[in-house]
């Protein structure tokens, strides 16, 4: 489906549960783009009873190497991407299949920053935030959402001290927050298309925790 964001349009992958109704969850892709991993996350959310929408922040481009991903992420217009994320949230809430007036947001790496931003910018509409090996600005931790984080024990892209500071800022604002650290894993451990990093056991555990969390906060 297409999402209109001001004067531009963005593609998005929509997945609806077999029941035809469910709570809404926005899925925000990592720096690879809207690839099959992220589409499958949306599909699995639908199988679990959620209406999932994954917008494309890269205008159809998909990176397969770190060098490509670095280029695409560096070229990203953050303001335009934020507009797409916000438009996707509005589109999801307005969809006939979406139940309730608050949604969840799952952000992967680059997408995690936009998930944190959206929860701060649209406090009345975001009830749950799930972060996969990515964070946002600590200045955006005063929200009305609950948080679940999945982080790798060996991750050169995330600073442990900053992660701890971010967690404490959330808790300081009274936000229900649980961060999990997965031993012997690295960045992208949840993504099957990254065989150098994918960890099936950690991925399955993270997914189980995610579905439980979303059911508790959105159900």
Description:
This protein has 219 residues and is of the alpha/beta class. The chain has an 8-stranded mixed sheet with strand order 1-2-4-3-5-6-7-8, sandwiched between helices. 38% of the residues lie in helices and 28% in strands. The mean pLDDT is 96. β5 (98-108), α4 and β6 form a beta-alpha-beta unit. The longest helix has 19 residues, at 200-218. It has helices at 36-47, 66-75, 78-94, 110-121, 160-172, 200-218; strands at 2-5, 8-15, 22-28, 51-55, 98-108, 126-132, 146-154, 177-186. The protein is globular. The two termini are 25 Å apart.
Low-confidence stretches: none
Number of strands: 8
Mean pLDDT across every amino acid position: 96
Q: Note the main sheet.
A: 8 strands, mixed
Q: Rough shape?
A: globular
Proportion of β residues?
25-35%
Helix percent band: 25-40%
Give me the side-by-side strand order of the main sheet. 1-2-4-3-5-6-7-8
> Terminal Cα separation, in Å?
25 Å
Structural class: alpha/beta
Counting DSSP H or I runs of 4 or more residues, the number of helices is 6
How much is the radius of gyration in Å? Answer: 16 Å
Order of helices and strands: EEEHEHHEHEEHEH
Features:
219 residues; alpha/beta; 6 helices; 8 strands; 28% strand
How does the SSE layout of this entry go?
Layout: E1 2-5, E2 8-15, E3 22-28, H1 36-47, E4 51-55, H2 66-75, H3 78-94, E5 98-108, H4 110-121, E6 126-132, E7 146-154, H5 160-172, E8 177-186, H6 200-218
Parallel strand pairs: 3-4, 3-5, 5-6, 6-7, 7-8
Antiparallel strand pairs: 1-2, 2-4
